[in-house]
Structure formats: C-alpha cells, structure tokens
Amino acid sequence: MIVYLGNQKINNLYSGDKEVINPTTLAQTNNKLDIDYLIVAGGGGGGQGGGGGAVRFQGTGGGGGAGGIITGSATLFPNVYPVIVGDGGAKSTGAFKATNGQTSSFLSLSPLGGGGGGSAGDRNSTNCTFGSGSNGASGGGGGSWTNFWGCPITYGSGTVGQGFDGDVSGGGGSAGPASGNTGGNGINWLNLVTYAQGGDSAGTSKTALGSGGLGGNYFPNPGAEDGVEGVVVVRYQATSSIATGGTITSAGGYIYHTFPVGSNNFTIPSKV
Prior knowledge:
The chain is mainly β.
C-alpha cells in the first residue's frame, strides 16, 4: 500500500500503534498474523456386529470414539508451519476390535485419535479382547453380547480435554460421553460446523470430520464403518488470503485454510 501526505510518500501507515499492512487485512499487523485454529484427529473405526442368525450371534459392534479436538488462538510470524491430519481408524472384521484413529498435529499440539469400537464376537474367538472398546481421545464403545462368550462388555475411556468415554455400545464424542448405543455429541466450532461425533452402534452413520465409525448390526447386516478422517482449519480476519496452504475459502470476513489427510504446510510469507 502506498500512502501520500501531500506529495510525500509515506512507507508505513499506522492505526494507533499497529502498522497496517494492507487495507483489506485486519489480522496482520507489525509483521504478525493473528489466527484461530481447530485441530481434529481421526475418529476410531466401528466394531463388527454378530455374523449369525442364532440369538447368541445377534450382538452389535461398538461405535468408534470421536477424534480428539484442540482449539485456540495464536499470533504467528512469517514461517512455514507443518500440518499433519490423521485418517480415520479401520473398521473391525471378525473377532477383532476396530483400530484407533490417527493423530493430527499443528503448532506442536497433537490430539489423539478416537478409540476403536469392540466387535460383537465370533464363535471361533479364543479370548475376550475383541469385545472391548479402545481408549483414545474419546473411548470406543464395547461390543454387545460378548457376555455369551463369557466376556465382560467394556468400553474405552476418553482423554481429559480431548473427548469423553464410550458406553456399552456407543462411542464417546468430543463434547460428551456416549449413552447406551448412541454416540456422544460433537462440538460446533467458530465456523458453525460440527466436528467429531461419537459413532452409534447399529444406528446412524456420522459424517462430521473426526467422527467415530458406525458399529455393525447383527446378521444379515453385521458390517461396520471406518472412522471419519480428521482436519485442521486455520482462520484469520481478512478479505483476501495472506498465507498459503490447504484449501482457501472466505466467509463472514474471515479467510479459512482447510487441510486434508496427510502432511501439509501453512506458510506465512514475509511482509512485502
């Protein structure tokens, strides 16, 4: 931006004690950028349901736990900031519990993946580990009817500050614990989008990023679902983009950088 006082060019323009870099930029002052961030890890996979028609096979798989969420604000300087987004955990097959979601990270903050859901069991099982929901950011739900194999129904525990516990079948959510076979609630961030819901057990599929996978029903539809991948979102107040990286959109006076699964970079260039 070029500003003149009479016929004298002024190189720097200040509003109070803040140097204005660009008249369309409200977040970048004095070579710094004020951001809000959302870091969501991958949700845990759902557990498989019972595979046979007999009553003892009619258990449901546990829903996956929601991926962990860390939010906050920061002031960043021109630099390259690595971003890693974790994928959702794999659903279970047979007498095996589902896998946990993958960790995401940004600014040295790393929420855990959601816990995988337990399986309903299999007549060829030789141990009880298949029915237990795993611990994670939010805990995975336990596989029901595992007591027919002499196994207790146990659910996964959540991590304080990132999520909540699972239940008998439902996976824990980022904003609350599971209740029975219903997964816990997710959170609504500053962009008014919901993230990281706990997976139901044989209920409704969750599509919000970071959500746990649906637990499988019993015969003839025992199949479960994978957990939903995580995401990292960075926003700052401006009408045009300053930084690079991810998918860039604008809404409500803010620029949003949304990062997909994998390794990425959020780059703030030096002031021009």
